[in-house]
Amino acid sequence: MANAFVAAFEILSFGAIIVLIVLGLGIIASMMGIFNFAQGEFVLLGAYITYLAYAKGMPIWAGMVAAPFVVGALGFVLEALIIRRFYAAPIVAMLGTYALGLIIRESVRGLIGGFYLTVPEPIGGSIDIGAMHISAWRFTIIVITLLVMGGCYLLLSRTSFGLRVRATLENPSLARASGISTPLIYGATFAFGAALAGLAGALIVPVFSLFADLGLRFLIQGFVAVMVGGVGSFIGPVAGAGVIGTLSAALPWVMAPVVADVLVFVLAIVFIKFRPQGLIAGKGV
Amino acid sequence: MLKSMGVAKQAVHADVGDEIDVSVAVGVPAERSAARKVLPIVEGVVLVAALLAPLVLQDYLTVFTTRVIILALFALSFDLVWGYAGIMSFGQALFFGSAGYGVALLARDLDITNIFLVLPAGTLIGLTFALLLGGFLLLGRHPSSVIFVSLGTLTGSYAADRLARGWYYLGGQNGIPSIAPMSLGGYEFSEGPAFYYLVLGILVVVYLLCRFLVRSQFGLALAGLRENEQRIAFFGYKAQHLKAIIFAIGGAIAGLAGSLYAFHEGFVWPNMVGVVVSTQVVLYVLFGGSGTLIGAVIGTVIVEGVSFWLSDNYRDIWPIILGLLLLLVILFRPLGLISFVLGERERVGSFGAKIKEKRNAP
User: Fold this and answer.
1) Is the CATH number of domain A2-274 1.10.1760?
2) Coiled coil: which residue ranges (chain A) (predicted)?
3) Can you tell me the ipTM of this complex?
């Protein structure tokens, strides 16, 4: 019983991490039609900023709060300078964002060297329920993920900003005709997606420690999750991330980890092949 | 990105009927275009430089150059798939690496190193994997989206990387070390000029085959696919079949390159099937110029050459410079460095047999 509970908690917490990372990726892919190869590096940057705050002697949570804002601002600038040119061609966008990611990743590698740098958890210790111990920080990540998910959903479905974003997604020319500044919306959406990646990086760095290839590890999982969930809505990628995250964490408990690792990707690709619209088809929130 | 009216126009004329002179359709009279062709000159210069290289280079540089030539062969396979048919294969290393692992296992477990067995075996492995993956991703009732194909190949390559890392039989993280050298009767190909000329010979043969292929009617259909897939489908071509065929040919060439690479380096390791090498080959081709065969070769030589030259002094910042250069090329020179010397018209090229006598006929 206790083992099953610990396993369930592990699966849930890994699922939450994947959802957190995929949120930004999914928003950019759904709202702008761009598969952002630099998203993994935005995660890395968020982690790096948190580490920097810790190394300079500031409280860790200060770094975690700063990370999404800094990464979001960078995303806004990059969108205005570079990403904007790629909207017409999705493949070129992949290559361009890949180049951007390469620059960011190698810069960070140059700054931290080839090391694994650890950042302590701001909320350490464990929560004890009877004989069972679960990590307090992992529990905090689950809570924050739920809050961020709810916040994003409300932002997109209930505010006038969300309405503008959805209008721009559905019909850019009509949105422009209605007086919505679509370039500004695209810029804000990209910055928002980048900020979410920064937040994800800041939150996971105590769990995975900081190394230059941190983002790469999650990027492909994130893409697969977005495709499984379905591009074009907010809920789709989140659902996909839940499925992929749960599968990747749960399968190693029942079979050899190597087989499980590969099986998740094979299953996902087969699923997408036969259901290209994803789990949740359709536009909207 | 590669939009050019020339191809579209040509495609129309070539399909409408045989009466129309193809070279007239693009607006270049055959005689005038022959006088100022840059492409054969570029190809000739590269070939002569490659032939002379081992004579002037030191031994360790010959070994390095051999590696570059093998990678150029690999780049050629990606260029066929992306530059000509417009299929974004982010997982080309899957075929390169699986062939490398295949021949490494042949050499390790069965002691087979005969060049006439291992090279065809590697090519066949590449072809088989490409047929399986390409068939799955590209064929089917509904045409697959470009995003799905590119992410599907990327995922395939990543999954293969993870499998190679975790599978004890394949050597895990360390790969398979100290592969016996390739042999021909009693002769063993070790690193050096002999291996260099062998690889160069293979590259020239494959290059000429590709050149023939992309200038044939099949190549014209491929160029049409790249420019406007729907139109090609309306002409009655089976667009998905064409894509699967060129994808398989690309996989076979990548497999050939991979088996040569495995024997040249003497070991294979998981990166060879993974995302690292897959993206590396994309870099080569984008730099050199996709859609021209020689562009792939030149791109490989430049990227590898400069990184070899810079990595002594600027090891840390070289990848950053590479990223910046790549970004600049994508933004401002989408047709690659070759477009500085090669005009758009010549890049598109002429297709099919020349029909010169027809113009003089009444």
Assistant:
1) no
2) none
3) 0.84
